[in-house]
Amino acid sequence: MAYTRKDQRDLTGAERKRFVAAVLELKRAGRYDDFVRTHVAYYRADGDKGLRVAHMAPSFLPWHRQYLLEFERALREVDPKVTVPYWDWTRDNTPASSLWSEDFMGGNGRRRDLQVTTGPFAYAKGNWTIKVGVTENRFLTRDFGNPADPIGLPTRRELADAMDETVYDSDPWDSTSRTGFRNKLEGWTRERGNGRWRNHNRVHRWVGGLMLGGASVNDPVFWLHHAFVDLLWSRWQSENPRAGYLPATPPPRGSDQHRRVVARDERMPPWNVTPAELADHRHIYRYG
């Protein structure tokens, strides 16, 4: 029977407590850091050689769908009643949102070093030491809105620009694709400054701190953010039932993307699963 992922604002106090407790148990057991290592390992940019699956590629959405499932399965091994909630950042778009409360994600980082000092993931609580990543800091950091170069969370209008696309992705299958739902939701543009970041990318920039870069999984809000991205893909699929994953076949020899992106029926590392196999999640989970 399919279980339900809820909007974080609809969680009861008990559900918040169970989710946090399960995340902390994965961290205590060392399993959480394995998830961070996986994301770091597969965080590759357009200019990098070799296969890209997690970002700047058509498989951005199915790769993170499987990644979320793996994390959710680990949580449910700790507590079968736990699911990953989602954060609708077009609605809960201020630091005053319940998302950032003391009993859930905690709040913003302090000014002098961006250290998060509130909530269950504060370093001083002794349960959340950063062990994997590109920073020497051992504590969780955030920098809401990046005051040095202010940026806001995505608006409903900005999101609609992605949701209005009627094809999944387009050549050249990277961050420069001018059309296609995937790249517009992932949030790459050719603009300069903060205009370059849209939707998914803009949320990472707004939270700041450790949410920037491949080690962003060190901030537990990563999962709530990506659960909403997955929900948006699910909605888009319902609205565009004939618009399947692209490319349907691998880019041919001679193409700049030959063996650099995953086609519909090709396996996505590190799992033995294809984008096609992840197109329908309704037998596993639904969104409330």
Give unreliable regions as ranges.
none
Q: How many angstroms separate the termini?
A: 15 Å
Structural class of the helix and strand makeup? Answer: mainly alpha
Q: Specify the overall morphology.
A: globular
Largest sheet data: 2 strands, parallel
CATH topology: di-copper center containing domain from catechol oxidase
| Strand content range | under 5%
Q: What's the CATH H-level superfamily name?
A: Di-copper center containing domain from catechol oxidase
Number of helices: 7
What is the string of helix and strand elements?
EHHHHHHHE
Q: How many distinct folded domains? A: 1
- CATH class annotation: Mainly Alpha
Assign a percent range to the helix content.
25-40%
Mean pLDDT equals 96
Radius of gyration: 18 Å
Oligomer description: single chain
Spatial strand sequence of the major β-sheet: 1-2
How many strands?
A: 2
Q: What CATH architecture label applies? A: Orthogonal Bundle
Quick tags:
single chain; 288 residues; mainly alpha; di-copper center containing domain from catechol oxidase; two-stranded parallel ribbon; 2% strand; globular
Explain this structure to me?
The chain is mostly helical and 288 residues long. The protein has a single domain, classed as Orthogonal Bundle (di-copper center containing domain from catechol oxidase), CATH 1.10.1280.10. Helices cover 31% and strands 2% of the residues. It is built from 7 helices and 2 strands; from the N terminus they run E-H-H-H-H-H-H-H-E. It has a two-stranded parallel ribbon with strand order 1-2. Helix 1 packs across helix 3 and helix 3 crosses helix 7.
